[in-house]
Specification:
CATH class of one domain: Alpha Beta
CATH architecture of one domain: 3-Layer(aba) Sandwich
Oligomer: single chain
Shape: globular
Bound molecules: NADP nicotinamide-adenine-dinucleotide phosphate
Helix content: 25-40%
Largest sheet: 8 strands, mixed
Number of strands: 10
CATH topology of one domain: Rossmann fold
Number of helices: 12
CATH superfamily of one domain: NAD(P)-binding Rossmann-like Domain
Length: 282
């Protein structure tokens, strides 16, 4: 790792200074964006009510927006929630959550129009199958999120939340501690919007770099499934534990540590919410 890259990591860590709860209290806004949640399954029916509680107006995108099940979800969600077909939900929202399986993804994305300037939060698990050794193996290349960005190049796709189970979306304390939400996007604004929402929900957003890092996030999703594949009655949630080491041991100048990497992505470096307490003195 080069000096500059380390400094970039340090700079983004340094911005995390207060608790997630504190951020959520500070950030209540009178005019929050309209969020479309495409899919009304496990993920959709967890995110919708939680986001509505935070003041976002929710529009569910569903194959059957008139069904009793979806009507009950709309009622439970409250705060002016509604349901419509996915294409209409997406067109009427500022931010879109993709809470759908991979199979209908292309058809649903292409029905949305160009979505210019809108933030699309992809929490899906892309095409995956069981390999010969019995574990999941990704079949989408390079990553699901990059494929989606290619279908809607004018939108701002961010990969996030896929590494988190719905039990933890419903109750972030269910994991017994702060849960990390790595966020990858080629659009700084999309990362900052996603990070703000993650912090409001009680999570620890982490700037995971450009959208190509979605390959690693999607690989984490594969890892998440390992205990289930093994039949263990257990699971895990991801948390990158904060360390003060890099705060207190800065590299200086342009010392080249690993030969060849140069400073990168500064224009895309998101300002992250202050989800941690003040750093301990060195
Ligand atoms: N559940 C988790 O804990 C978890 C964790 C991480 C990531 N994910 C990912 O998040 C995405 C959503 O997961 P989920 O657990 O919410 O899935 P789910 O319970 O199966 O719900 C998916 C929803 O997508 C909609 N949908 C649209 N077209 C569909 C189609 N052709 N076939 C099936 N459903 C269709 C359905 O809503 P309508 O019937 O209203 O159209 C359905 O309820 C997936 O990509 C999943 O891999 C899930």
């Amino acid at each position: 790792m080069t000096t500059n890259r380390i400094l970039v990591i340090i700079a983004s860590s340094a911005l995390l200074c207060f608790s997630a709860k504190g951020f959520s209290e500070e950030s209540s806004q009178p005019n929050k964006e309209v969020i479309a949640i495409l899919g009304t399954g496990d993920m959709g029916d967890s995110f919708g009510p939680q986001l509505a509680k935070l003041g976002y107006k929710i529009i569910y995108g569903s194959r059957n927006p008139e069904s009793e099940r979806v009507a009950a979800l709309v009622e439970k969600t409250g705060n002016g929630a509604s349901a419509m077909t996915s294409d209409m939900a997406g067109r009427n929202a500022d931010i879109v959550f993709l809470a759908i399986p991979w199979e209908p993804m292309e058809q649903i994305i292409k029905s949305l129009g160009d979505m210019e300037g809108k933030t699309i939060i992809d929490l899906s698990w892309p095409a995956s199958k069981l390999a010969d050794d019995g574990y999941y193996q990704m079949t989408t290349k390079p990553s699901g999120a990059e494929v989606i960005q290619g279908w809607i190049p004018k939108a701002m796709v961010a990969k996030a939340f896929g590494t988190t189970g719905t039990n933890v979306i419903d109750d972030p304390n269910d994991a017994g501690g702060l849960v990390t939400i790595p966020i990858a996007s080629d659009h700084r604004e999309a990362k900052e919007i996603t990070a703000r929402i993650a912090a409001e929900l009680g999570f620890d957003p982490v700037d995971a770099g450009p959208l190509r890092m979605a390959r690693n996030i999607e690989a984490m999703m594969e890892l998440y499934m390992v205990p289930h594949i093994q039949g263990r009655n257990t699971g895990w949630e991801f948390y990158f534990r904060r360390t003060n080491y890099w705060m207190c041991n800065r590299y200086s100048g342009s010392e080249d540590v690993d030969g060849g990497l140069s400073e990168a992505d500064l224009a895309n470096l998101a300002e992250m919410p202050k989800t941690h307490g003040a750093p301990e003195p060195c």
